[in-house]
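Deliverable D5.2: sample structural annotation.
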Amino acid sequence: MTTFGAIGIASTGMTVNRKWIDAVSDNLANINTVRGTDEEAYRAKYVVATEIASADGGGVQVAGIAEGPAEGRMVYEPTHPLADEDGYVRYPEVDMASQMTQLIMAQRGYQANAAVVDRARASYESALQIGRGA
């Protein structure tokens, strides 16, 4: 694998991790989105990644975005303006602890891939310096 191949593979990882961070951010932003019982709850987003198989190394790519259940969870809040006649509203099925864990994993993955790009760039610059005889 060449230096440019390493940069290419790491950049695909950065793209997938960025999409993952975006999905988690959307989920966290909508964790308290209330809907009436006659509507679907906010559906959590989950990134589906697949391998890119190629002769020069490959990488990863976003294959799609999966969504969580639309049922959500029913909460008894009779004073809420969207409550039905029984006093229930619908909240999304999003777990804060799970989302924060995913956010940390996605951030660390992004940082690791950015470090690979930085190190590959530094080694390429060093090779250019050696080639110049400096």
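Annotation notes: The first strand starts at residue 45 and ends at 52. The chain has a mean pLDDT of 91.
The annotation will be released with the project's public dataset once the embargo ends.
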